[in-house]
Amino acid sequence: xxxxxxxxxxxxxxxxxxxxxxxxxxxxxxxxxxxxxxxxxxxxxxxxxxxxxxxxxxxxxxxxxxxxxxxxxxxxxxxxxxxxxxxxxxxxxxxxxxxxxxxxxxxxxxxxxxxxxxxxxxxxxxxxxxxxxxxxxxxxxxxxxxxxxxxxxxxxxxxxxxxxxxxxxxxxxxxxxxxxxxxxxxxxxxxxxxxxxxxxxxxxxxxxxxxxxxxxxxxxxxxxxxxxxxxxxxxxxxxxxxxxxxxxxxxxxxxxxxxxxxxxxxxxxxxxxxxxxxxxxxxxxxxxxxxxxx
Length: 294
Ligand SMILES: C[S@@+](CC[C@H](N)C(=O)[O-])C[C@H]1O[C@@H](n2cnc3c(N)ncnc32)[C@H](O)[C@@H]1O
Description:
44% of the residues lie in helices and 20% in strands.
């Protein structure tokens, strides 16, 4: 197709389908195209219906071609756009942050439901914060909460800080390794919390086979993987940390590996947590766990 024809949006859309349908299927390609024309040209899909010969300028056509090439190499659309929506807010994402997932929105909803009727001040900590999607969404919904968030990755924290600023939510960020929490700064270790939440790395190496290239090649290993021989390594340490740093009656929330729901329930019970509750995500997989400290 010549360059002039590719400035007509309808032709660009056909090209997207021709090259991308074999990889993603028609519906997903439709939604990529919708996101891109809205992001680059502020257009709604109805524009194409009302005006089938709508033309973009040459620069616009070049941007769409670039996006097409990146999608063809299975780069996530969120990286191409540089942002994604989570819990009604916009978050910047990068190669250093996990792309926030809809399952995690369900975890946030659970915490908001449990905490929204509390009128007294509340202190919350998110461990392994990535883009900051969990603490920023919680801060946005729970204005009386003082929010802390920790990550070992300086690059991820930079993105999270920008997201907090962009969404006008105050979060205190801490750089540190939760697996060695004893050496975190003493000011932080003097605090205790009403709620601790974590979506830590939980994918076993053996599960790599089930994963798509857009995750394996473009999302940070540090955010995803744990060794096959110790898949609960983060949960064990965080449960111990929570036992020490949660207030009495404080709540611990986890996002978990869908294959390890039973083991996770046992872990919390063995550490004297009460009211342990396992919940499924929208796909029916064991995905979230809550426990209450005595
Ligand atoms: C599964 S991602 C979750 C990101 C974000 N909370 C979300 O739900 O989208 C796990 C996060 O844990 C961080 N992380 C990995 N190892 C860590 C460690 N030892 N201490 C603290 N954070 C760690 C990673 O950098 C990553 O941001």
